[in-house]
């Protein structure tokens, strides 16, 4: 019988492998984090574009239905309230289909499931007068975009001018 010899790795070979893996991780992890941040910005940029498109399409639908300033417009089976020709940011709390109920722009948008919806005013809104100046804030991991219907007739809605920072305490979306 001949004896078999087992051959393993030396300590130096193992250390070299550990060093190589460590260097790869140090280089790769920051790049992966940067890619993730870029993806979040891209999602919010697309959401802002979708918000603008939805507002313009809704405006066209309102004009076609004879609502030029304030009033209700039927869109996708929802009663959307318009202020100065554009959809308001948020719905009231009466409940869909109840007398006096209305929806806002977020109710006719298709949003990514990771995007959180916030409003600048969290009071229980029942009437149209209280909803006209409210901002819609769409937030993803502390970054946000915003929308508010025009406050003057003949003007365009107010949108964030890019990707901003969300302040959860004050419910604001600021540069």
From TrEMBL:
InterPro entries: N_methyl_site, Pilin-like. Gene3D superfamilies: Glycoprotein, Type 4 Pilin. Keywords: Membrane, Transmembrane, Transmembrane helix. The chain crosses the membrane at residues 6-29. This is Prepilin-type N-terminal cleavage/methylation domain-containing protein.
């Amino acid at each position: 019988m001949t004896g078999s010899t087992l051959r393993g790795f030396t300590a130096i070979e193992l250390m070299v492998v550990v060093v190589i893996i460590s260097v790869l991780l140090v280089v790769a992890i920051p790049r992966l984090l940067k890619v993730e941040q870029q993806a979040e910005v891209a999602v919010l940029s697309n959401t802002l574009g979708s918000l603008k498109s939805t507002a313009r399409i809704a405006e066209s639908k309102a004009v076609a239905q004879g609502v030029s300033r304030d009033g209700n417009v039927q869109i996708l089976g929802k009663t959307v309230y318009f202020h100065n020709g554009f959809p308001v940011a948020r719905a009231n709390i009466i409940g869909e289909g109840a007398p006096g109920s209305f929806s806002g722009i977020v109710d006719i948008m298709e949003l990514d499931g990771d995007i959180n919806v916030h409003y600048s005013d969290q009071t229980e809104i029942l009437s149209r007068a209280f909803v006209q100046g409210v901002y819609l804030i769409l937030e993803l991991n502390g970054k946000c975009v915003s929308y508010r219907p025009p406050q003057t007739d003949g003007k365009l809605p107010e949108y964030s001018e890019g990707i901003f920072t969300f302040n959860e305490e004050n419910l604001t979306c600021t540069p």
